[in-house]
Amino acid sequence: MNQTNRRGFLKIAGLGVLAASVSKIFSPSTAEAQAPKAVDEKEPLAQSLGYHADAKKVDNKKWPKHAGAEGAKQHCANCMFYQTKDPKAAEAPCQIFAGKSVKGAGWCNSWAKKA
């Protein structure tokens, strides 16, 4: 390898290191990048499934699945679609709302008992 090729290589390698450093500075942290956005109750899918961040606010006449003593026990934290291993998690991703999280105290009509 002659001296001209070495200089060119070092310039390109230096630019690569600089670019990687700049992208690391301006990119979100790992925790921020992995934290899914919370479902908004006003979103069309949330409305069609009767999602409420607080299960106590569900209209039991409109959503009879949530009515009665059994319905009162239903909330996202004990639903099979709630994706967390931490039973005390206040919020976690939900398979129904792909890429988004729901409140553990929430409820929607897709609720199914966790095994």
Question: How is this structure best described in words?
Answer:
With 115 residues, the protein is mainly alpha-helical. The protein folds into 2 domains: 1-30; 36-115, Irregular (High-Potential Iron-Sulfur Protein, Chain A), CATH 4.10.490. The protein has helices at 3-26, 30-34, 44-48, 68-72, and strands at residues 37-38, 91-93, 100-103. Strand 2 and strand 3 (100-103) form a beta hairpin. The longest helix has 24 residues, at 3-26. The protein is rod-shaped and about 80 Å long.
Class from helix and strand fractions: mainly alpha
Number of strands: 3
Q: Spell the H/E element sequence.
A: HHEHHEE
Low-confidence stretches: none
Global shape: rod-shaped
Outline the biggest β-sheet.
3 strands, mixed
- The fraction of residues in strands falls at 5-15%
For the terminal residues, how far apart are their CA atoms? 64 Å
The number of helical elements comes to 4
CATH architecture of the largest domain: Irregular
CA-based gyration radius: 24 Å
What CATH calls the topology of the largest domain is High-Potential Iron-Sulfur Protein, Chain A
CATH superfamily descriptor of the largest domain: High potential iron-sulphur protein
Mean pLDDT: 85
Helix content: 25-40%
**How many structural domains are formed by the residues?**
2
Properties at a glance:
115 residues, mainly alpha, High-Potential Iron-Sulfur Protein, Chain A, 2 domains, rod-shaped
In short:
The chain has 115 residues and is mainly α. It is 34% helix and 8% strand. The protein has two domains: 1-30; 36-115, Irregular (High-Potential Iron-Sulfur Protein, Chain A), CATH 4.10.490.
